[in-house]
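the four lines:
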Amino acid sequence: MTTGFSEPNFSHVAAGHAVPVQGPLGSVLFAGCPDLIGTPFSYAREEEIYGEGEDAEFVYKVVSGAVRTHKVLSDGRRQITGFHLPGDLFGFEQDETHRHSAEALSDTKLLIFRRRQVERAANHRAEVACQLWGMATKSLRLAQDLTLLLGRRSAQERVASFLMEVDERLGGNGTFTLPMTRRDIADYLGLTIETVSRTLSQLSDEGALQRVGGRQISLRRAHLRRLVED
Amino acid sequence: MTTGFSEPNFSHVAAGHAVPVQGPLGSVLFAGCPDLIGTPFSYAREEEIYGEGEDAEFVYKVVSGAVRTHKVLSDGRRQITGFHLPGDLFGFEQDETHRHSAEALSDTKLLIFRRRQVERAANHRAEVACQLWGMATKSLRLAQDLTLLLGRRSAQERVASFLMEVDERLGGNGTFTLPMTRRDIADYLGLTIETVSRTLSQLSDEGALQRVGGRQISLRRAHLRRLVED
DNA sequence: CGCGTCTTTGACGTCTCTCAACAGGAGTGG
DNA sequence: CCACTCCTGTTGAGAGACGTCAAAGACGCG
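prediction for all of em together
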């Protein structure tokens, strides 16, 4: 099942992390709209891209690196609503302000678009509006998958499901390095870092995966799949 | 319980009531597109509108009544992903099949649109595509709010937040009758019916609300608001 | 009135959280 | 090269919130 990574939002864009980064002028985002050329921009690890409540002036597309978007309560509880990898578009809002925050997981390159320009293009070109509609629909489906995960799945199911999703997004060969900390994982899965850590140890003991250090993981996918059957 | 299987007999209904189309909220859906006239259709309480995995041939707009959409796991665990009230559009998918099920909470009237027709209209008219984009974005925002609720809020916060949301969507005067069962509430909030019931009793004991029978509720909104501050 | 469904309440179990200590790496400076 | 610190991750013990199981009350409907 899906754990809510936002996937590349336009099917004609090459899928996965191995997207060849086209030069800023070669971006196929909003193809056919030469006026919608994104501006390249770089962010350092843990750098904030925008904060909740700020004016939503720009829209962002990941070129390389990774981004998380999240919401926070006043007492510090945090819920990550999505991880965004190369090819993903994020930061769109209906209102004038962002309803969540966005930060770079690692050193990250983005393309930035002026929201007003994108909206104007959508108003005039059905093709662009349909792309945006499709993007929103896809994000919605991912959010609803996450809803099921958070509302009805155990800690073990959440972690197993998460690992399989990461594997898929990062190449799907069963071996990868987690690009985020335990805290990010916990705040995405609605758990604590201790529960995430314990669950990983338990999965390792059961032979569902092998670990090298904290981040590098090899999955036994058949084993994991049995744990999250729906 | 539902015995009647809803099989939208299109031509029959269309013949019966070819009616001008306008939502009760006054919004005209797909204005300026006379070819996008929805067909009225009625569903009984608890009747299935469509099921997970079925072909997504139609899109639906609520005229009166209420609808729930949900996902289920093979062992019966259920997560309601949304309640849809008059004016809401639901049932749109990116793929060819529905990723969740939809049922009528109470006797419900809908407008049914052929998905292909809507998509064709969106492809030609930026105005229509923008409407669809806006509705999808609104649903997305609600889904992300639910994500935070499920991932990081206590049972009391979930129930209190839910009650305020229902109040708002049902007029916002603080007194209303819940249109759904405890099971629906529980499956929406990621809790059990016992926990929902106990939490309601507790809120009542604390003076945060008053109850008449099982469904009718008067909120002390100032009190409730303190419980869900973010 | 009788029956089924929905809701409430109680007793108990358990999964996850909280609090706390410790281990392993990476970076820094002596 | 080693000592030190910071940061992330792991593990343990105990607590607490919510779930499970069970029974009884409330409500609606034929």
